Please model this.
Amino acid sequence: MGWKSDWLYAVVFKMADAVVDKARNDARQLAKASPITWVLAEYSQADWNFPVCGGPVMRTWTKSQCDWQETPEILDVAPPRSKLADFCYPTALISFHVAEDRKRVVLNYSVGPRYAGGRIYRVSGQGIRGKLTPADGPSWIS
Model:
């Protein structure tokens, strides 16, 4: 099964869309610029004790206004250094890792210097009933 037809990836993409929507709304309310481009990166590993992704990046997607598009080559996902109006980076990064047993997902986002976070989610259900719920344990936000 490829990522395009995988229900769990569809749930991860919905969560990524929620991060994008919230950041755009927050920027609008503060009369600030929001990121121009969004990058979604799937990592090969995660730290399950502190929710961060690690290891090599396996795939990347970008989004500007519409749907996520897989990139033909893996993008450089180094932490951004420039910022727009002290609120966000021109390119925001959302990263995730799906555990090998598909029972947990780590999702992180880095929108700006003070707009980032990470959490571990438990996978429950499958298919149209599948969802991610916050796991007990550490999370972070800045």
The mean pLDDT is 89. The longest strand covers residues 52-63. DSSP finds one helix and seven strands in the chain.
